């Protein structure tokens, strides 16, 4: 597959961004990106199989959310094929297998054909994490545990869930960045943040109608997220957004409020000299790639302004 020729303005914009900021989208398999990312009229199955190398040639797309691993673990050989076609500085944010994060008493468990293995550290440590580490090496930006809405028992006893989650994280292989994404605001708070700090994990700040504003989900000292995901426009659900925004080739509903919040969090992370991974979905504003471009512009301008305000040596 061929990539769209890199434009000079986007190349200049990419050069204004810090190297520790990794921007990307949630998957790359969208035929509506023909003419934006892909130089051709490719169908979605072809893009899914062969499009990553072209995607990674875009100067602003320095990372990607790997969603396939959420539905079923992928073998290290197939993962290694992904790693081989992207440059050294590229990073993958890989969703962990959904069985690990599906509460057996939740609505998702009731309707899913996947047998829950809720917070099963043995499964995670032996079958889920090792293939990602072996295949991606330094290109593994983070392993993301995305929790679907929890069952009533865990919502009523958030401390018990936080304690169990902490034990799970402490049992996982070391040297990997783990991120936690929630759909239950009841879990948030000082105890949750203390658990993250003690385990070395990070909260994945996410824009989702079920959650508080993305910049208010964690507030304690040192809790600035290292992973941000912009998933869904606040006025939409997934089904309606997919219909309204397809084929994902333009910004249908620009969300300036959440864009400003995300840029704020990015700048806070950059000031701490830490890596920050940002993943945007088509359902955020209409086209994830165009959302990334707007975020990049805002970050570059603000970062440059901050740098110019520092006293000269």
Explain the overall architecture.
The chain is α/β, with parallel strands linked by helices and 313 residues long. It has a single domain (8-308), classed as Protein of unknown function UPF0759 (TIM Barrel), CATH 3.20.20. The protein is built from 14 helices and 8 strands. The protein has helices at residues 8-15, 44-50, 52-55, 68-71, 76-84, 107-111, 121-136, 152-156, 158-170, 190-199, 238-245, 256-271, 282-285, 288-309; strands at residues 21-26, 63-66, 91-95, 140-146, 178-181, 202-207, 227-230, 276-280. The chain has an 8-stranded parallel β-barrel, surrounded by 4 helices. Strand 5 (178-181), helix 10 (190-199) and strand 6 (202-207) form a beta-alpha-beta unit. It is globular and about 50 Å long. The N and C termini lie far apart (48 Å). The model has no long low-confidence stretch (mean pLDDT 94).
Short description:
With 313 residues, the chain is of the alpha/beta class. The chain has 14 helices and eight strands. Strands 1-2-3-4-5-6-7-8 form an eight-stranded parallel beta barrel, surrounded by four helices.
Number of helices: 14
What structural class results from the helix and strand content?
alpha/beta
Mean pLDDT: 94
E-strand count: 8
Query: Would you tell me which CATH topology applies?
Result: TIM Barrel
Helix content: 40-55%
**Please, how many domains?**
1
| Low-pLDDT segments, ≥5 res | none
Instruction: Output the helix-strand order.
Output: HEHHEHHEHHEHHEHEEHHEHH
Based on the coordinates given, report the CATH architecture: Alpha-Beta Barrel
CATH superfamily: Protein of unknown function UPF0759
Largest sheet: 8 strands, parallel, barrel
